[in-house]
Amino acid sequence: MSQELYFNIITFDLPDKPITFYLSKEKIGNAQKLYKTKFPTNIEDLFPGIKEENPDFIYTSFIYEKEGYLPLKLNLKEQPTDLIKHYYNWRIKKFFKSIKKLVGQNFVNDNQIWIGNRSYQNKSFAQYYKFTVKVQIKEVSVYGELVISYDGMAKVFKKPISEIIKHTSTTNLNKVVYKMRLLKYHKEKEFIDDNTKAYAILNNDLRTAFNIQPEPKDDSNKYISYKHKIDKFIQHFILSEEFKKVIPVNNDDYLPVEINRIGEVTDESNDLVFQNGVGRNPKIDFKNLKPLNPCQLDNVHFFFIHHTSYTKEVEKLQELLEDGTSWYKGLNIYAGVLAHFDNNVNIVFDDLENPLPQISKGIKDFKSDPNINYVAIYLSPFNKHEPNLEKRLVYYKVKEQLLYKRIISQVIEFDRFRRNQHKFIYDLTNISLALLAKLDGTPWQLNVKPKNELVIGVGAFKNTEENIRYVASAFSFKNNGRFNEFHYFSKSDTKGLAGAISEAIWQYVPTNKTPEKIVIHFYKDMKDEEIQPVLEMMDKLKLPCPLFVLNINKTKSEDIIAFDQNWNGELIPMSGTYINIGPKGVYKYLLFNNLRYNNTVKYPSNSSYSFPIKLKISSPTPEALNDSKMIRKLIEQVYQFSRLYWKSLRQQNVPITIKYPEMVAEIAPRFNSKEIPPFGQETLWFL
């Protein structure tokens, strides 16, 4: 069955006739500020010599006459794209404010419209659905484009902040609603004249302060619910006659994806090699086809770190890991990990509120045998949603201290195990998978011919709740996905970042000779100062091979996606489909990675419905991008590397070149030391 793909885009016409903007060099009253990249192409007609003066800003009232502002006729089709987008964003904002809707902005200044859910009945909160209307100009068509997306929902307290701060600190406030405006409380509270008319938007800090449970996780097909919501928004607002007077929408349906924009990875890109054959779905194949390489380490000894009251649960957990059940056969048979449990070295604590001092002493006093590879199973009394930060950080401190002792660890939430031991065998499948990978085993591998090429991944993480700084780490891999090593450093350390990438190349070349190509998977656009040392290293090593940089991002909800209108109403495009979403000369793509294959009749239940990821491909030698076969191979490699995630049997859509560094970057900043021990740079301890 062929795909019928549509973008979440409604198109509009740019005006054929000139329109008049009103501009001033100085700000007079309320006005829109235009940065110099947005100056009209014919600005010299109005302000002779302004390009030589080179001011950073001028000001405009756009199409409204205003005292002190001078008229300038513009052909919008000939103007800078940023100016056109600014103009239409301004018009969209004015429209929704005129019909009494809340309008905010996302981090790239697109309009986000909040629509109240009148059917939501709750005495404490009002509920809003959030939609982004993003303006693009001729990105995937010959028209202006409105990318319509659903960004989730928000809850707003019905009691004003004057009431809720009686029960919590103002430090827990973030965004508030005041007189039909969305304000950041700590940055814009000077605009709030009356706290009895300002209403807090629920955030994680307020959720914790008022002991409000998070919304239950929805594992249903989010393509369907997403499209249903934007359908209603478009019908009610975008296709209304009032809106069309502001933005001349020229089609009442979504924009079809042109066939020449669509590609597919090879069917073989889905193949994974296990011990007893080739499979595609680790959830099934890992058990049936067995891990490719069982644990490569001898003398693996397990021990427990637990509270004194957990003795019975420890015995049961050990029994499950050793002998398993009728379905899960234990660590050895299921995952190829031959383990001995040594309860004589267990670390036991009796303080549930503050276990770290006793655990730390137990680790410090641990007498290890250099001929034994130790694995610690830590039964944590705190879960990952623990509101107390100090308790939540115990997990990280224990992991760090064990690494310094060259001990691999696996953390299990005690309450999760205690509540339902029967169902915990499903958790044990993922735990067993991760333990195998940590112990230098290979659960599965890509079905590719080995090539002499180096793939380096750089990822980062920021915990906004705890204000943890960004950090990044660089991983290097062979083309079959085999992990080499990684380095870790702060986000601001541009020199360290470039040095780590250069070091990965330096370490690879003497053993493997000249690679066919070097590929860098980066979590953001790579700056010149980050890529220049890499080029210098390649020049130093006299490497004639091409260098490719792939910027890889998870698709945000407020971004462009695509639906398949021709597949059982499930809408999810086929796995391996990629779509060119850039204008000519820009190598930008959506890549879909899921469990729908050529012969899939219905999408597997309880599986991930991930949105696509976005790729942008560049090279310091632009002519290297002229090879369409090479572009496809680079996209296929991203697709394949997403299938090497060994923390869970559940399909991922982000390649491990980005995901693994992100996982390290989430954990490592909580360590006391600024560096990860050398032992930790050679193992997948973070899984």
UniProtKB/TrEMBL annotation:
<comment type="similarity">
    <text>Belongs to the argonaute family. Long pAgo subfamily.</text>
</comment>
<dbReference type="InterPro" id="IPR003165">
    <property type="entry name" value="Piwi"/>
</dbReference>
<dbReference type="Pfam" id="PF02171">
    <property type="entry name" value="Piwi"/>
</dbReference>
<feature type="domain" description="Piwi">
    <location>
        <begin position="373"/>
        <end position="673"/>
    </location>
</feature>
<dbReference type="InterPro" id="IPR036397">
    <property type="entry name" value="RNaseH_sf"/>
</dbReference>
<protein>
    <recommendedName>
        <fullName>Protein argonaute</fullName>
    </recommendedName>
</protein>
<dbReference type="GO" id="GO:0003676">
    <property type="term" value="F:nucleic acid binding"/>
</dbReference>
<dbReference type="InterPro" id="IPR012337">
    <property type="entry name" value="RNaseH-like_sf"/>
</dbReference>
